Backbone:
């Protein structure tokens, strides 16, 4: 059976590669702004985007995944540019961040399984100097992430504490997905 990851995310590919999952990756075609405009709950948004991505690719089995970040009730998108990233980091400074990641598994054009998890990351107070030095080191890579960080890189320095699953924070609840793949016979039990 062919398994497709509907994502161009390097970290999602790295997670599946490290877990020994055999798949191919294709770019999904989803209007994320349209989904976000009609929903307000971050868990619903992440779940709907994951499902939409999985359904946007024709294939027997397709994985879709997405993450959303909220801080102080405000939903954040990926920064448009470095100036936008600075503004995001200023807003995040000293506040708790909620990061919700969802994953969906579609089978022949229908969602067969979905899962969403939320992690809480407490952003420490960030100085202007830290923000500038951080972006000097991490830009443009963090521009492709909704929280302007890569936990597997210097982004770990943004936080005082983290409460949540590591894979969820990286952008895809991997352990539940692996369980679903085993249940469907796509991985050996």
Residues:
């Amino acid at each position: 059976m062919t398994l497709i990851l509907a994502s161009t995310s390097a970290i999602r590919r790295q997670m599946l590669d490290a877990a020994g999952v055999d798949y191919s990756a294709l770019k999904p075609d989803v209007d994320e702004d349209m989904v976000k405009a009609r929903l307000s709950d971050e868990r619903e948004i992440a779940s709907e985007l994951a499902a939409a991505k999985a359904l946007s690719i024709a294939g027997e089995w397709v994985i879709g995944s997405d993450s959303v970040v909220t801080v102080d009730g405000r939903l954040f998108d990926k920064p448009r540019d470095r100036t936008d990233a600075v503004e995001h980091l200023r807003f995040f400074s000293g506040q708790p961040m909620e990061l919700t990641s969802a994953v969906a598994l579609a089978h022949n054009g229908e969602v067969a399984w979905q899962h969403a998890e939320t992690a809480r990351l407490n952003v420490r107070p960030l100085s202007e100097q830290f923000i500038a030095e951080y972006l000097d080191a991490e830009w443009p890579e963090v521009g492709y992430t909704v929280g302007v960080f890569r936990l597997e890189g210097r982004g770990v320095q943004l936080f005082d504490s983290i409460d949540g699953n590591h894979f969820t924070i990286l952008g895809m609840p991997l352990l539940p997905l692996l369980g679903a793949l085993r249940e469907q016979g796509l991985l050996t039990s």
